[in-house]
TrEMBL record:
GO terms for biological process: isoprenoid biosynthetic process. It comes from Ramlibacter henchirensis. PROSITE patterns: POLYPRENYL_SYNTHASE_1, POLYPRENYL_SYNTHASE_2. SUPFAM superfamilies: Terpenoid synthases. This is Octaprenyl diphosphate synthase. Pfam families: polyprenyl_synt. Its cofactor is Mg(2+). Its EC number is 2.5.1.90. One of its GO terms (molecular function) is metal ion binding. The keyword Magnesium applies. Belongs to the FPP/GGPP synthase family.
């Protein structure tokens, strides 16, 4: 990861000072670096030790960071990772344009792999993520969204880059098709579990630990799984309360909605959905050769369920 951070720092260099300033602001905020870590673990588990893994790990982090910059503008977010978002600090135009820079820099860097398969995986992932963002925008304030519709969004918007990161590790290692698919399935399952737990924390987390405002999803009119499960299990009065909040982005009744989500057992339902995805990821990781890196993949999926931020 130190090697990846060195690549990131080097490739953020630009002749336009504001580009580097905004890019460094959001990347230096830290984050979990899960996607690059996933690529490194998979490639190492399958025996690849080449330098290209550091370059591609930085590429997926740049793509992820670009989506964060654009997301925060669309969602009008003010807090991420415990501090002001880039759009709050530098304005929306700078955030959008620097996000574009990070996308284009990522595509410059992926050319260096000189591998059409790698380019195809990353180009496809970037396109699917964009589709997921638009799909989520279309679903805003739609209280009729069901679990299948919710999963379709997060598998595009969040899980796709996890899937691509894991698949890239296998492609670098020239793994056979069955192993490559197992790695990609691991990434998709891990990314899905990660987002489902993230949605749990919006109603059961600590704002200080999470580094973002609780209730942000509701404010944006997002029908996430805790709300979907609560409407399915609640009384007519409870359903109407949640439905109104989603349709109007109303957070005045946030405390009452959190109480409903907890009383109906919706958080348990949501955690069970995350646990099923984590278990699917573990099953995929166990198809890889047994070593400290594949053990790390198993451990990563198992620990995901206990995350608090």
């Amino acid at each position: 990861m130190l090697e990846v951070d060195a690549v990131i720092a080097r490739r953020l260099d630009s002749g336009v000072p504001l580009v580097g300033q905004v890019s460094r602001y959001i990347i230096s905020a830290g984050g979990k670096r899960l996607r690059p870590a996933l690529l490194l673990l998979v490639s190492a588990a399958l025996g690849f030790r080449g330098e290209q893994r550091f370059n591609l790990a930085a590429v997926v982090e740049f793509i992820h960071t670009a989506t964060l910059l654009h997301d925060d503008v669309v969602d009008e977010s003010t807090l991420r990772r415990g501090r002001a978002t880039a759009n709050e600090s530098f304005g929306n135009p700078a955030s959008v344009l620097v996000g574009d820079f990070l996308y284009s820099r990522a595509f410059q860097m992926m050319l260096e792999a000189n591998d059409m398969r790698i380019m195809a995986i990353l180009a496809d992932a970037t396109n699917v993520i964009a589709e997921g963002e638009v799909l989520q925008l279309m679903n805003m304030h739609d209280a009729s969204l069901d679990e299948a519709g919710y999963l379709r969004v997060i598998r595009s918007k969040t899980a796709k880059l996890f899937e691509a990161s894991a698949r890239l590790g296998a492609v670098l290692a020239r793994a056979p098709k069955e192993l490559e698919e197992a790695c990609a399935s691991y990434g998709q399952a891990l990314g899905t579990a990660f987002q489902v737990i993230d949605d749990v924390l919006d109603y059961d987390g600590d704002a200080q630990e999470m580094g973002k405002n609780l209730g942000d999803d509701l404010r944006e009119g997002k029908a996430t799984l805790p709300l979907i499960a609560a409407m399915e299990r609640g009384t007519a009065e409870q359903r109407d309360l949640i439905k109104h909040a989603i349709e109007h982005g109303a957070v005045e009744e946030l405390d009452a909605i959190v109480a409903v989500v907890r009383q109906t057992g919706a958080l348990d339902v949501t955690r069970a959905a995350a646990a099923a995805e984590a278990q699917r990821a573990i099953g995929c990781a166990q198809q890889l050769p047994r070593n400290e890196y594949s053990d790390g993949l198993v451990q990563l999926a198992a620990q995901l369920l206990g995350r608090r931020n």
